Amino acid sequence: MGPVENIAIIVVILVFLILLLSGQFISSLLFTTGIIGLYMIGGISLLSGFLQSEPFNRVASYSLTTIPLYILMAQFIMQAGIVKDFYNLVFKISKGKKSLLGILTVFLGGTLGAVSGSGAATSAALAQVAVPELKKKGFPETLAGSIAAASGSLSSIIPPSIVLIIYGVTTQTPIGELFVAAFIPGLLMMTVFSIVTVFYLRSYKGNIESHEDNVEEIDTPVSRYVIVILAGILIIGSIFGGIYSGIFTPTESGAVGAIIALVVALLLGKITKEFIVNSLIETMKVTVMALIIVIGASIFGRFVSLSLLPRKIIEMLGTLMESPTLLLTIIMIIYFFLFMFIESLAVILMTVPILQPILMAANIDLIWFGILLTIICTLGMMTPPVGMSVYVVGGVSNIPITKLFRTSMVFAVVASVVVGGLIITIPELATWLPQTMKQ
């Protein structure tokens, strides 16, 4: 059995690399390599037995019901134009104060991440409404675009993060605890991004020219702002407060958030046939994509466990297992480079099944590790060559990608050193809140 396992691992790695370099979808990649590996280890009987039951059992998981509900909530928010209302309010509050406008834009991005769960959607929304206004206030276009990209990428760590949901499902870790654990690190990320923004503004001081005459005053009724603010408070309260207090499960909080977003859209007069159809179609697209990826990851994960690959890696690591700090450092460096080149969900689904037994053998807390992983993932959305948030902002705002990456890399490096260092040095920043939760 030993030689068969080794040959299967080598073949799977080779096929995996070939498919990855050829640009295959991550679901197809995991599905194909998993099937090849299982067939080589156990033949057609093992493969057919697994394919008949495991895919359905995996996607029928109650934990995965959180995905369509949060995506539906995000669609209602985006379709209702709530993002633009929030930014118009931020713009009015910070009038004449560039640093305050930059900071509020970062926190607005984090808030939108908390109610949308989509980094690309948040980045696109900020690129549409925030970048033009920041430029009118005299922000250099690269800084304005980088603020939008950094703020949008926060949705990877700020609940309801799809990344956290997939990590929780893959590791069988309570999603509610992951959401609560991400609260403090998420605030830290927003704070660090705000400080970097202020630093950049001060370094540009004297070279910034405002274009106040071009700033259009948007006459928005106060009642609309009241509705939008109350909606934001209620949605965030249902996600964080509801889960933390034990009133709602993560799935129930998603349902409550979606209902609140729908009621707000109704109050704002945005409900039309097109609104409903577009929201449902987009939700279905994202949900089906996520479920197909989960099926592929399930097949690949079964091959990983049957091939005893984690055990072989543990044996290879040897003395490193006795030094969790050194082990974690190596793992995080590898992840940082992986997130630079490969989409975040793909990285998690490919690597976590292999790493989980290693982490457990080294007595590393899976919730704490999940938060650290999402921090690195957040930074990966801002670094070349596959910085998704940067590409979205560049595409919407027509700012050159190379210029954006120069500034966004600074945001990423500072956050990795400060926030990553704090989470590793003080694990309680991620583990304390989940320990106080009411079950």
| Terminal CA distance | 44 Å
Total domains, how many? 1
Decide which structural class fits the backbone: mainly alpha
Low-confidence stretches: 211-215
Helical fraction:
over 70%
Mean pLDDT: 80
Number of helices: 20
Question: Radius of gyration, Cα only, in angstroms?
Answer: 22 Å
Instruction: Give the topology string: H per helix, E per strand.
Output: HHHHHHHHHHHHHHHHHHHH
Strand content: under 5%
Looking at the structure, what is the overall shape?
globular
| Extended strand count | 0
Largest sheet: none
Question: Can you give a write-up of this model?
Answer:
The protein is an all-alpha fold. It has one domain (61-295, 307-435). Helices cover 79% and strands 0% of the residues. The protein is built from 20 helices and no strands. The longest helix is centred in the N-terminal third of the chain and has 34 residues, at 26-59. The radius of gyration is 22 Å and the shape is globular. Residues 211-215 have low confidence and may be disordered.
What is the fold's blueprint, element by element?
Blueprint: H1 2-21, H2 26-59, H3 66-79, H4 82-93, H5 98-116, H6 119-136, H7 141-153, H8 162-171, H9 175-181, H10 183-203, H11 222-245, H12 250-267, H13 273-306, H14 309-317, H15 324-341, H16 344-361, H17 366-380, H18 388-397, H19 401-425, H20 428-435
Helix pairs in contact: 1-2, 2-13, 3-12, 3-13, 4-5, 4-6, 4-11, 5-6, 5-7, 5-10, 6-7, 6-18, 7-10, 7-18, 7-19, 8-16, 8-17, 9-11, 9-20, 10-19, 11-12, 13-16, 14-16, 15-17, 17-19, 18-19
Short description:
The chain has helices spanning about 1-20, 25-60, 65-80, 80-95, 100-115, 120-135, 140-155, 160-170, 175-180, 185-205, 220-245, 250-265, 275-305, 310-315, 325-340, 345-360, 365-380, 390-395, 400-425, 430-435. The chain has one domain. Mean pLDDT is about 80; it is low at about 210-215.
